[in-house]
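About this split. The held-out portion is used to measure sequence recovery: a designer receives only the structure tokens and must propose an amino acid at every position. Recovery is the fraction of positions where the proposal matches the reference. Here is one held-out target exactly as it appears in the evaluation file.
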């Protein structure tokens, strides 16, 4: 089947826009999980409403929790989460959401019944074995068809003894986060030890720990690569979700590649989101970056390549590659071998697609080398990867006649992407139309 194509707009000049982004995917899905395990209802204000968070909400409902829209006075309703008296069995569609496929099985182990999990074809290829092995080591009966991958059938028995488990989370920090999120409800709590290559996406584990502490769970993370969660009740929460800083990447990049100015409203002063690394990265690449109480502003100037280890912020790689392909000096990105297990093999996809546009992108064992080269238009395939589509949109600002296949795939984390992008580029006349991106 031929997928639809979107003609990525070229920038008519330097962009100049203020952008308001929806809530963080990673925070929304963590709040939903702890809320489903809590001892009272919770309110999640300004949640992200996207494919990944809708799948998480549906997964929790399949296990007996309730997730309802309630008016919070904002542009979109809040979510009121009512935990189940007792988690039950059910069927869970994980889609292509890493957070759903890795966070739900440790929770499913607490259900009084069988929980069946499956997802998109690519979800069956994403790494899962350490989660299956860890649950089995804790005495949970999990069927995986001998593949260590989805589809899974978790035979929940209503409780999990807990204890201690050792796993290799080198392929995804989500293996650790998923176990920690459920651990306070295991009878003896849980100690999780990571052994193996360095853990990627460490800020995401810090986010898990901070979320747990916010709901009264005691977590000791004082020893590197060891997390100890004490058993105990999970309190309800009433929380405002921060804007998604990884989704800010293409918009801030737009300022950098057009010599323009973009402000993202509501950028937090303190955050565990990996996307906060954009401040240093864009600064190193030549942009002017300033954070104040209202938000983050990026002004583009000369654009240079960068030598960066992005193992803490792998989500940013696709957009950084787009920046690098338009920069005047080479870029080397390291520490991101785990991106081969993301929505697609991101290293291969970025090398293939940018090379097809005339660029020079070479895969290494653990990253990419990007060299300056003139780019031409063409079709960018997106492999069901929201961030490849966003990276292509950034290239399109400077490369005429660039088409993006299946730009709708951005709905995984940012359903309004095309509208926001076009509003960012629109002239003042377009400002009268309702839009979430506006000119200053
Ligand atoms: O826990 C999370 O919310 C996430 C952790 C990271 O996963 P990996 O450690 O698998 O890269 C990140 O890339 C993903 O987008 C979200
Ligand atoms: C890797 C990502 O997603 P997931 O949560 O599906 O792993 C991502 O959003 O960049």
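Reference sequence for scoring:
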């Amino acid at each position: 089947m031929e997928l639809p194509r979107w003609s990525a707009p070229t920038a008519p000049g330097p962009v100049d826009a203020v952008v308001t982004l929806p809530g963080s995917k990673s925070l929304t899905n963590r709040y939903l999980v702890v809320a489903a395990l809590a001892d009272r209802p919770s309110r999640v204000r300004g949640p992200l409403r996207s494919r990944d968070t809708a799948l998480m909400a549906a997964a929790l409902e399949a296990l007996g929790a309730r997730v309802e829209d309630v008016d919070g006075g904002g542009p979109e309703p809040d979510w009121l989460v009512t935990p189940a008296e007792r988690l039950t069995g059910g069927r869970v569609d994980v889609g292509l959401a890493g957070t759903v496929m890795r966070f739900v099985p440790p929770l499913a182990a607490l259900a009084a019944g069988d929980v069946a999990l499956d997802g998109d074809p690519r979800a069956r290829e994403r790494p899962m074995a350490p989660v299956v092995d860890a649950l089995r080591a804790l005495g949970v009966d999990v069927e995986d068809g001998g593949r260590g991958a989805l589809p899974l059938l978790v035979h929940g028995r209503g409780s999990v003894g807990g204890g201690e488990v050792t796993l290799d989370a080198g392929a995804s920090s989500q293996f650790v986060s998923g176990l920690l999120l459920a651990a306070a409800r295991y009878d003896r709590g849980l100690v999780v030890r990571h052994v193996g290559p360095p853990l990627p996406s460490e800020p995401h584990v810090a986010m898990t720990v901070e979320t747990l502490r916010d709901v009264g769970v005691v977590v000791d993370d004082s020893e590197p690569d060891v997390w100890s969660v004490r058993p105990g009740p999970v309190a309800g929460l009433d929380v405002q979700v921060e804007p998604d800083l990884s989704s800010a990447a293409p918009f801030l990049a737009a300022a950098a590649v057009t010599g323009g100015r973009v402000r993202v409203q509501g950028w937090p002063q303190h955050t565990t989101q990996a996307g906060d690394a954009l401040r240093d990265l864009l600064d190193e690449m030549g942009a002017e970056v300033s954070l104040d109480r209202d938000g983050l502003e990026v002004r583009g100037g000369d654009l240079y390549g960068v030598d960066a280890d992005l193992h803490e912020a792998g989500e940013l790689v696709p957009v950084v590659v787009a920046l690098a392909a338009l920069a005047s000096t080479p870029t080397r990105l390291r520490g991101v071998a785990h991106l081969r297990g993301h929505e697609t093999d991101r290293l291969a996809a970025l090398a293939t697609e940018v090379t097809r546009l005339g660029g020079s992108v070479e895969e290494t064992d653990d990253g990419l080398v990007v060299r300056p080269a003139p780019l031409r238009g063409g079709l960018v395939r997106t492999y069901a990867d929201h961030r490849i589509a966003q990276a292509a949109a950034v290239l399109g600002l400077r490369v005429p006649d660039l088409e993006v296949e299946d730009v709708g795939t951005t709905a995984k984390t940012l359903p309004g992407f095309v509208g926001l992008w076009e509003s960012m580029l629109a002239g003042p006349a377009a400002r009268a139309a309702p839009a979430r991106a506006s000119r200053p």
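Annotator remark: The chain has two domains: 5-22+242-438, 25-232.
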